[in-house]
Structures are given as C-alpha cells and as structure tokens.
Amino acid sequence: MAEIASGCPKLKELDVSYCYQISHKSLATIGSHCPHLHILRRNLMNWMDPSQHVGIVPIEYLNAYPQDRDSEVAAIGKFMPSLRQLELHFSKLTGKGLALISEGCLNLEYIDLSGCRRVSRHDIANASSNLKKLKNIKKPNFYIPRSIFRTERYGHWQLYDERFQTDG
C-alpha cells in the first residue's frame, strides 16, 4: 500500500471494500500520501450473518480482522481530513470512533453507516452536530430481524408475523 499511495498523490477516490488485509496502518499511509482523497469506501461484509461469507472470504481473514474496532476510523479521522464521502458498511466502529471521524473529517458531506450496529442514535447525533457540511447520513437500521439469528419461532410469533407482516 505504501508504494501505491506514494505513487498516487493526486488520488481522489479509493474503494478498499471487502479487502480484509487492509489495516489501519495502510489507511494511515494512504491518508498521509494522498492529501486530495475525497471519497473512501471501506465497506465490509455483514458480520452479523457469517453464512454470507462462506466461499467468499476465507475464515482466516475474518478471524484476523482487527478486534480494536476503532483503529481504522482513528486513522481515517487523523490522516484523511479532506474526505467528503465515507462509506463504512458493517464497520465495527463504536461511538468513540465516530467521534474521531467527526473531529478529523470536518469536510464530510456524506457518510454511510449501514450495518454499523455499535453506534447509537445519540452517537450519530453528536457526530452530526460537529459536521457542519454534512448533507446526508445513511444511518444503521437499528431493527434487527429475527431471521438473522435463525431462531425458532413460537406459535404466537407466527400469528404476530402474519398479522403485522414482519420479516416472517
């Protein structure tokens, strides 16, 4: 990544989605060598349903993914101040990580937090108040359908699902 980043100082858009070997150090290197980076896509697969990964992402990659959930977004907040658009589908960032982004990426106009289950509405409100140029934020869906957890349903749940047309 260091060779690519140092050879592309005018890079404006980068998509490193689903690249499980990209670390927070790689993101810091990219940010420090590419000061004109305006769009970053760092989307991950749905970690709440591991069956989606079978045959696509080796289990070793998923197990090696950093457990320090905010290390990547800390690097983004510190080394990518020119970002205007940021996608973080299914990131494991926390409210602290979102605060780091809102403090370091003051030019953000769009942020996509789809699937980011570890941030609360309160965290999002606090970060949004700091981002004066923010025009659009895609918030995580805080409703988690029971089907994701593949739990057995009792008779009354089936009646409820039929009556209210849930994810059944």
From TrEMBL:
Gene3D superfamilies: Ribonuclease Inhibitor. It comes from the Eukaryota. PANTHER family: F-BOX AND LEUCINE-RICH REPEAT PROTEIN 6, F-BOX DOMAIN CONTAINING PROTEIN, EXPRESSED. This is F-box protein SKIP1. It comes from Forsythia ovata.
